[in-house]
Design a protein that fits this description.
The structure holds two protein chains of two kinds. Chain A is an alpha/beta fold. Chain A is built from six helices and seven strands. A seven-stranded mixed beta sheet of chain A has the order 2-1-7-6-5-3-4, sandwiched between helices. In chain A, helix 1 crosses helix 6 and helix 3 packs parallel to helix 6. Chain B is built from 14 helices and 16 strands. In chain B, helix 8 links the parallel strand 7 and strand 8. In chain B, helix 8 crosses helix 10. Classes of the chains: A alpha/beta, B alpha/beta.
Chain lengths: 191, 385
Amino acid sequence: MEHYRVLPGPEGYLPPAAALRGVPLPLPGEALIEGRPVARDEAVRHIAAKLAGATVPRFFPGPQLLWRDTPYARERGRLVREIAREAGAGVIPMPDYRPKYPMIDPAVEINPNHPNLTIWHNKIDVGVFIGVHCHQANLALRIIRGGTACYTVALCAHDGHEDAHVSLRDADNAVLEQLRDAVRAATRGRA
Amino acid sequence: MSGEALKPVPTPYLLFEARREEQFITGSEAVREAVRRANVDMAIAYPITPQSESMHLVGDLYAEGYLRDYFRGENEFAVMSQVAGAAMAGVRVFTATCGPGTLRAFENFPLWAGTRLPVVMAFMTRGVNAPLTIQPDTIEMGMLLDTGILMLHAENAQDLYDMLLGAFSVAERTTVHLPLGVFVDGFFVTHTRQKVRVVAEDVKLEPYDPAASPVPTVDMETPPVRYMRDPFVMKSNYVSYAAHASWQQEILAAAERARPYLREVVGPFVEQENPDAPIQVVASGTAVAQAREAARMAREEGLEVGLVKIKVLRPAPREEIRRALARAEKIVIPEFNRTGWLAREVASMIPANDRIVAGPRVYGGMTMPPEVILDALRGTRLAGV
């Protein structure tokens, strides 16, 4: 089977699940860049560079971050806002997973069942998922790859996401601090 | 001793390191012994032969303090729906059924997979027919292949015990989180005594962690009706279709991700004996035992015969089957059902599938004497096809 690469879209009518095209999840200590296993540090630098070079970067915090009221979660939220600030990125929340009908307000939220609407409306070119349940994140990542050119990043607390363009696994708050420092370095001197 | 007194240990310790002792028990009793060590929160039962004894014995575990809850549902559809509710609420739940019970409950199996419920279940396979049969037959397995559940097939009571104990850690992985069915041939295994090495230390599996679920666990703010009532399931537009398609892809992807974790607990998906032989017998379940004896008899006659035992059916063992049969000139596939679903599966996986002899098959409760397989190996005749 030809090695499948998880590249920016729009990929087409129904992009495949990367797992079904032979893309494995990253092993502990590793990460994925476009379906290729790499060391976590390399992926962190890659994410920082993508954020630094983006025109409209956005963070998409999900329910596991938005609604969890623990000291760890509050610190996580603070770190996400700090990274976003360093990157000049906005934050568009994914407060829940219910499809929004008759029409989502794409200026203020994103939804896993039709994430492309928010991407298109805001012309987002780099999107970072964090705190989204793994099933819902994968649901959204494939739809985004199918219909948009947005470059997606998944900061996963579990085993990672093959369907993101870049995916970190075990992304705890220490990893977020590492990402913050990398973004700070990547954007240093930027006007 | 009760469940509370057992020490939680990781699955690899329980499976491969904990001290074991040999017991002479039935397959149904092997289910009881596996559930005893599995730290199961809840079990729900409905009787149907040849499964009834297993869930009866699991009920005894409840009386002994190994389960937190246990009850009998109204029928199999009710049981599988109740199992879904328990799993959505974040508890480790176990059940078992067979044959007509499987079919009565059928809608629930793709629902379990679609809603990412890590239910572990035993199927004591039985015939599906009119006039009613209660006899052993694996026909229901062919019907379940595309429901999204992971499927293992036990050859004997030891396989059944080990597969059940190993199943939970695979089904409950965040990246998998799918139902897992352990199948065993009714009566042939459930109602016969075999030597089974069971864990003898006072240990049990670590508890299920619903916080690691890839979907929200149901609570008062996330009611289960969300899965059915939310608008995208009812809308006729591209956005709705795309969401459904991506959702279904995720179930297939989750099964694909199960491969390395399944290998950790059951080993290779297929096991092969005498791999260089030009004639290979491919089988699963108790057909493996009969085929092994048939191969031995054939070798006495000078025929070179190998054996491929399939342990994992979903995710499909494509590469393993292709490798195992790469040099085979003739492939005999004995089955305990009239449909020949395993022969179809293998035919879809290998090149030059005209090498396959799709049989012999027996059904309606018939046994499969090794001589019937031997006849097929000789190329003289096939039973039941």
